[in-house]
Design brief:
Blueprint lengths: L2 E6 L4 E7 L6 E8 L2 E7 L1 H20 L28 E11 L4 E8 L20 E9 H16 L25
Parallel strand pairs: 1-7, 4-5
Antiparallel strand pairs: 2-3, 3-4, 5-6, 6-7
Helix pairs in contact: 1-2
């Protein structure tokens, strides 16, 4: 089965954004280079983990003795992006993701793969009535400054959701909250 790779080597924009009201939001990883735009749906937790792990990679690079890369400790102001998502909004829903560092280009690398069919039999060839048995993946490479701006925005987007209950830690809905205290 061939894989269509949506590759962005030096994107103009890489952001996490949402569609919907808090409690009903869908998170998207959106990448644009020129007129090519790809938006991949993510879970809130995937978005938060992605930002956390990118910051960990960048923070580790700063501590490496003899590091030849200039890694900013915070988001460069000129790279901050507070604009909404651009259309089109969804290409596929991400399942597995990988994150890495490419020292040859000094870029953080993100790979996102679509959720597979959990009911599919691995030994059985899938039957596609349209003859389109192509899968997709997203491959994004972003420089360190863009990566810091990405993590800053992602943390802000994730935090902009429903407030959490100080007692139980679960999100509180605007129409009320039934607190379920954890057992001690």
């Amino acid at each position: 089965m061939p894989t269509r790779v949506h590759e962005f080597a030096w994107p103009d924009r890489v952001v996490i954004g949402t569609v919907g009201a808090p409690g009903e939001r869908t998170f998207y990883l959106q990448v644009r280079a020129g007129s090519q735009i790809v938006s991949v749906a993510l879970e809130k937790q995937q978005s938060a983990q992605l930002a956390e792990k990118i910051d960990e990679i960048l923070d580790q690079l700063i501590t490496v003795k003899g590091n030849p890369f200039s890694v900013p400790t915070s988001s460069p102001v000129e790279l901050d992006d507070n604009e909404p998502l651009e259309a089109p909004v969804e290409q596929f829903r991400a399942g597995a993701m990988s994150l890495g560092w490419d020292p040859t280009t000094a870029q953080v690398v993100i790979e996102a793969y679509p959720i597979g069919d959990p009911d599919a039999d691995e030994d059985e060839e899938p039957f596609d009535i349209n003859g389109d048995d192509e899968t997709e993946m997203l491959l994004v490479r972003m420089p360190v400054g863009t990566a810091r701006a990405f993590t800053k925005r992602t943390r802000e987007i994730v935090a902009a959701g429903r407030p959490t209950c100080a007692l139980c830690g679960y999100p509180m809905d605007p129409d009320g909250h039934t607190c379920t205290l954890p057992e001690v």
